[in-house]
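Late entry, zinc ion complex.
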Amino acid sequence: MSVWDDVVGQPDAVGTLRRAATDPAAMTHAWLLTGPPGSGRSVAARAFAAALQCTGTDGETGGCGRCHACTTTLAGTHPDLTVVATDKVVITVAEVRDLIMTSARTPSSGRYRVIVVEDADRMAERTTNVLLKAIEEPPPHTVWVLCAPSAQDVLPTIRSRCRGVVLRVPPARDVADLLVRRDGIDPAVALTAARAAQSHVGLARRLARDADARERRDAVLEIARRIRGVGDAVLAAGELVDVAKAEALAATAERDAVEKAELMRALGVQDGDTLPPRLRSQLKQLEDDQKRRATRRQRDVLDRSMVDLLSLYRDVLVVQLGATVDLVNAEHDGAVRALAADSTPEQTIRRMDAIGVARERLEGNVAPLLALEAMAVALRPQG
Ligand SMILES: [Zn+2]
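Prediction complete; structure with ligand written out below:
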């Protein structure tokens, strides 16, 4: 085994990173790891960090996966590793200043001080400028690993100072193998989930393990067949938004409560006490952050639903064009064929365009219900 085992379907990226970790001549001190959501950016970043720290077992270095440095880095407890994994919408200037201070310190026991920023695209321009100098001339023992969906998501000034490594969408079969090997999932279930998740590793795992998640996805796909007229379309749009809201709430509620309790404790307020007015702004700030997080989550869930719908129409088009490629939704074969028989390829493409427009609107902060209603209406059968 090695630290690279869980970085699935990325031979080129692994090759580059592994060389850098073992050959000082191939080393760079600022990296930009890019790849679509679910391609395993943060897994690759951690594996790279472990490979950098690896002290080796039986002469095997560069991420043996067995030495203390490897295991603690992968577990996130290595003292010379800092990972910024943010659920907030933005990374603040104060957070980046702290990181820069950390990055200047000599490693306490490891070979390098490694700073991983998982969502480098969530930095405002001003914050990025604070970071620039630090990544341009880092101390020799410091390595920055920035992650983002694509190079275009970070400012050109950052891009030009980092060495880029691009992750691709891994083949569904590789993702399925990982689920079988790592999570002990049944091979057939793993492959169906990997295809349905379009190789998004985290999502595939959730679909494979969580029957509710599979049911929610099926319900989303059902919508394509249920919409017969404008009335159905409006109803369906409302349902999609409600489901996303409920899912976002379920995902964030528990954590919100814990954070609030921690803040109250830090402020020295007992359970049931009223908060003194001078401390209220602190609570307000936390609540604002939490609200933003819930909104973001809701939009992420909605976007995922639309990607699922898109995959269904993609399958419809595959059937209509008689292409010999695998269906993403093989288990919805019946629905795919019925839709294919009921429409023309041109209509399918128009429907896919309507979903694309809705995704863009959502990204541009249009009210979710408005964006989805327009989309759903465009999905109804056309004469
Ligand atoms: Zn090791």
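Residues 54, 56-57, 63-64, 67, 69-70 surround zinc ion (CB under 6 Å). Will revisit in the morning.
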